[in-house]
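Question: what's this shape?

___
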Amino acid sequence: MAKLYESGENYLETILVLHNQGKNVRSVDIATEMEFSKPSVSRAVGILKNGGFIEVDPSDGFITLTPAGREVAERIYERHRVLTDWLVGIGVDEKTAMEDACKLEHDISVESFEKLKQHLREKHQQNV
């Protein structure tokens, strides 16, 4: 499996989100969603395909996540959701929280993220 960088993780997360919205995803959909040029997306799609993270249907161009790609996308998306909710919960406005979560989701360690989730669960249980 190829090494995946932050930009690749963002592409996989975007593909997952679009799929979760019930869309058949093509490169143009990713370009629109991420506000990137079509050539940039085309290059990234090729890298992700060669890395074993996505498959591209040769007949219609639909992009699907491989099991490895789905695993990465779900991990990043969970981090994004949890971090956004946490930041909003401590008073950060939603737009800033989403932007900051996007930065943090790639760099936070597994240990720190798991401890944050544990802390949030415990806090939630105390408030119920």
Notes: The beta strands are 54-56, 63-65. The first strand starts at residue 54 and ends at 56. Residues 1 and 93 are 38 Å apart (CA to CA).
